[in-house]
Amino acid sequence: MSNNVNFKELKTSGVGTFGEGVGGKIANRLFKVTPGHDADYALEQASVLLDCVYKMTLHAGVEGNGQMVWGAHYLSGMAKALVEDVAHGMITEPVR
Known about the structure:
mainly alpha, 2 helices, 54% helix
């Protein structure tokens, strides 16, 4: 990966997806990152989501709450999609 990518100009590309489709099919994801958002903002939101995941799994472990575990699962999928989308943009961005 090149260090010449201008991160301030990097945008989401819309390739990040999450949420399995019917029957758990990965090819038919339910949600997709919208292209055109600032990469730094997308990563900031991923960080916020992961903080929620951390807190939810901690509480779920103490309380034995299965619903919190599923909520954390979906939030982590959202965060993963954001990070993958930004990473894709960094790899495919032309070198300046």
